[in-house]
Amino acid sequence: MSIRIDEKGRLFSLETAHTMYQIKADEIGVLLHVWYGPRTDADMSYRIRTMNRGFCGNPYEAQDRLDYSLDTLPQEYSGSGVGDFRSSSVEGEGADGSLSVDWRYSGYRVLKGKEKPEGLPGVRGNAETEGLEIVLEDKVSGLAAHLSYWLFEACDVIVRSVRIENRGGKAVTLTKAASMCADLPYGRKQVMHFHGRWAAERNPERVEIPSGGRLAFESRRGMTSHQSNPFIILCDPETTERQGDCAGVMLMYSGNHLEEVSADQVGSIRVVCGIHPEGFRWKLAPGESFRTPEAILSFSAEGLNALSRNYHRLIRDEVIPARWRGMKKPVLVNSWEACYFDFNAEKLLKLARSAAALGMEMLVLDDGWFGKRNDDTNSLGDWTCNEQKLGCSLKELSEKIHAEGLKFGLWFEPEMVSLDSDLYRAHPDWALTDPGRDPMVARHQLVLDMGREEVQDYLFDSISAVLKDAQIEYVKWDFNRSVANVYSRALPADRQGETAHRFMLGTYRLLERLTEAFPDVMIEGCSGGGGRFDAGMLYYCPQIWCSDDTDAVERLEIQKGTSYGYPICTMGAHVSACPNHQTGRTVPFATRGVVAQAGTFGYELDPAKLTEDEKKAVKEQIAVFHRYEDLIEQGDYYRLDEGEKDYTAWMFVSPDKGEALVSVVATHVRANAPFPFVRLQGLDPEKTYLREDTGERLTGAALTQGGISLPQFLGDYPSVQIHLTVCG
Ligand code: GLA
């Protein structure tokens, strides 16, 4: 039984394979967070102790218990304005202007069968998925919070979300509605977050949580952002890749987000995560509900690699569309770095022909095929083929590319409109702009008001027309600016605070409609590289272009940072030309292949311009990728370079531990260096493995404890791939 409830219906224990999450409604109905950690059968609430700590008031019904305070008790979903002075989970404004929310437990329901949350992406589950709903009520405002918990036992994941219902007789405006809150029971004094900038996304940083202070990781850009991913890991200072406690919180959302981590006066750690409250105001009429995005929680007592694998499994099995689960994807060549805006059908066909000759399987035509677009100053929104530029129709081009034996993909940036476009000239009010103010322009474009149905319909119709007209197997869905001037011409003044979230709901709805109408078209997410890399987009797009930085050495860090929360099969990664277009660096062709093979694997160059040696290398790389594709995309992934500065190493292990692939890139080669060894992980200690390149036979135990020996590296950024198979 994975959900245990005591006979009084007040202590709830949610068990996954190795973890337990416990919640308790106490005697006055305050919902307490009791435990999130290793699995145990015990009632862990013995750990909740109380004392009068001074300046911590008492709820009215417990006014004589000076030791009992909302300010010191571990809360499961904090209220606001009633004596818990830590981060609130929910804030609102009643019809009379009152601001407080004071939750009390009102009941629970055991759930079976997970359905998609209406309007939002959600972790999928099935008819057997078990869950729990706990209902809290605030008597005065009439608000009720339906906290739901879904158990993904095998992945050690708990998915939380909240539906806030207005059961009262008057409208309430929500100004904060977090997806989750928890006061964690012990330790976890550090938080790992993933910061960045354009072309340098998801850098892991581990910071101390300051005593009595609060850390905020956030995006107010109307999108997930390059700057801060909606994923954090709480860990003990001793936690490493291989050992120690850690707990992840990932928001399944692609818009403004906030992850708050604070340490209270006695060191208890509170995490609150959800839609960013800044600028958020959602009016709830009587009877209406607001549903938060889901938060994906996981705990591991066995270090960061194990935690990452929980997320990898969950995203592979329960987030990306079932249609693409475990699918072999075509090795593609993307036109962007090969020709940018400078192409016509003839040039593309040449590219296709040379790509096909080397074994590539799909040509993706990137930006520049529509409207009158020859640079980034115009035409977004005008999704009709620029036949004058191409010299033929898209249908003809697609036919010719297919005749070369390649599939065909196409770039769109649906949520944007260029100032210089027919769409903007016809519907200036469809863009987000402030009344009486010149809008912020970025890359000569504005952002469409995706919350409007007519905008969604226009995009559905124009994108559908292209997808129906020509044979297109793949869409790259881009998003190339941050959102500002968040004002909708379609909403009244008192609903403007809904615009940013309605924008996301509109985008999700469009993705929903298009993926339903064209189930065989695979969508790759993108946002100036990896600016919208999150579980919400992965619900529709089984892969996301990881970064606009295609330099293999830079990619080592970007892909490694991404791997903490997201599986390898979701990371768009290509071999590009050198000197690299972003850094000017030259990295050996072989190393570029090894790095792109820790992702979806493809090319971003003109194959006709390669040397004969490089062409040979492409053919070999594609053969190697296909040989190990299942292992790479579906195997267990381990980061191996713990604090090691001179190389980056990782490995994939097949689920039955019968096979492994170890990849190492030396980032700093030193003269007369010590013999390098990398300690492997995930192997069966009892089994003997054959090392393909040297013929050496070593046990899993030896390789894990003593490591695998690496060659003495020479030159700039050399790499090695080592294949191991069980031989006894
Ligand atoms: C973004 C993408 C690139 C490319 C360009 C086209 O920057 O990340 O890969 O598609 O847009 O304008």
What is the fold's blueprint, element by element?
Blueprint: E1 3-5, E2 11-15, E3 19-25, E4 31-38, E5 90-93, E6 104-112, E7 130-137, E8 143-152, E9 157-166, E10 172-184, E11 190-197, E12 200-208, E13 214-219, E14 231-235, E15 246-251, E16 257-263, E17 269-275, E18 282-284, E19 289-291, E20 295-300, H1 303-319, E21 332-334, H2 336-339, H3 345-357, E22 362-365, H4 387-390, H5 394-403, E23 407-412, E24 416-418, H6 422-426, E25 445-447, H7 453-469, E26 474-477, H8 499-517, E27 522-525, H9 535-538, E28 543-545, H10 552-563, E29 571-572, E30 574-576, H11 589-596, E31 602-604, H12 612-634, E32 636-639, E33 647-653, E34 659-666, E35 677-678, E36 688-691, E37 697-699, H13 700-705, E38 708-709, E39 719-726
Parallel strand pairs: 21-22, 21-31, 22-23, 23-26, 26-27, 27-28, 28-29, 30-31
Antiparallel strand pairs: 1-2, 2-3, 3-4, 5-10, 6-7, 7-8, 8-9, 9-19, 9-20, 10-17, 10-18, 11-12, 11-14, 13-16, 14-15, 15-20, 16-17, 24-25, 32-33, 33-34, 34-39, 35-38, 36-37, 36-39
Helix pairs in contact: 7-8, 10-11, 11-12
Bound molecules: alpha-D-galactopyranose.
Residues 336, 366-367, 411, 478, 480, 526, 528-529, 545, 548 line the site of alpha-D-galactopyranose.
